[in-house]
């Protein structure tokens, strides 16, 4: 009888541990990274020097630094310029930036830090994007949002005119496809 009672207590204890762990895991998976809204014009603190390389998406509350073709830096909450297309705000062409959509972590603050493009699919035509490049400000307006297959790298193709292309994986992961946002320069 005592052994049977001990087994039941162990089972109940294990069930409580698994249930608590499952609830915490569900919380992490369902918790969307939230960012505070930014000024619509993408301006930073008045009087402060302009950043060297930074992406600001006011509608999504995104304000992150840009690094060149160092994909490992995505895990540090940065966006990466894909230099294969060869564009940038100063010289024109297709300026391509990539960032993580969702990265799981046991620490909720890290999920928010690294998942910079979590809400990228919520951008709409006409939304403003600001890029700070070499201490100058460049304004863009979203012109198109769409999805492509995983291997469809035509989104990185060079262009003759200035264009900003942002892309990330869908929430189902990189094997499912990519969300792409195209933006054109604006005054």
Q: Secondary structure elements and their pairing?
A:
Elements (H helix, E strand, L loop, with lengths): L1 H29 L22 E5 L4 E7 L10 E4 L11 E5 L9 H7 L13 E6 L2 E13 L14 E8 L2 E13 L2
Parallel strand pairs: 2-3, 4-7
Antiparallel strand pairs: 1-2, 1-5, 3-4, 5-6, 6-8, 7-8
Mean pLDDT: 81
Largest sheet: 8 strands, mixed, barrel
What is the rounded distance between the termini? 81 Å
What series of H and E elements makes up the topology? HEEEEHEEEE
SS-derived structural category: alpha+beta
Strand content: 25-35%
Percent of residues in helices comes to 10-25%
DSSP summary, beta strand count? 8
Summed up, the helix count is 2
Physical arrangement of strands within the biggest beta sheet: 1-2-3-4-7-8-6-5
Uncertain runs are: none
The value of Rg in angstroms is: 21 Å
Global outline:
elongated
């Amino acid at each position: 009888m005592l052994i049977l009672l001990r087994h039941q207590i162990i089972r109940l204890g294990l069930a409580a541990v698994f249930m608590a762990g499952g609830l915490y895991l569900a919380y992490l998976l369902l918790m969307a990274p939230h960012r505070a809204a930014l000024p619509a014009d993408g301006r930073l603190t008045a009087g402060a020097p302009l950043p060297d390389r930074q992406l600001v998406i006011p509608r999504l509350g995104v304000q992150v630094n840009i690094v060149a073709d160092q994909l490992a830096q995505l895990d540090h909450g940065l966006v990466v310029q894909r230099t294969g297309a060869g564009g940038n705000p100063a010289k024109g062409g297709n300026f391509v930036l990539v960032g993580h959509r969702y990265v799981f972590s046991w620490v909720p603050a890290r999920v928010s830090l690294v998942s910079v493009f979590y809400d990228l699919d919520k951008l709409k035509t006409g939304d403003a994007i600001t890029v700070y490049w070499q201490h100058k400000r460049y304004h863009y307006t979203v012109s198109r949002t769409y999805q492509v297959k995983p291997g469809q790298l035509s989104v990185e193709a060079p262009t003759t005119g200035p264009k900003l292309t942002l892309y990330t994986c869908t929430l189902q992961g990189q094997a499912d496809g990519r969300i792409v946002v195209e933006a054109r320069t604006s005054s």
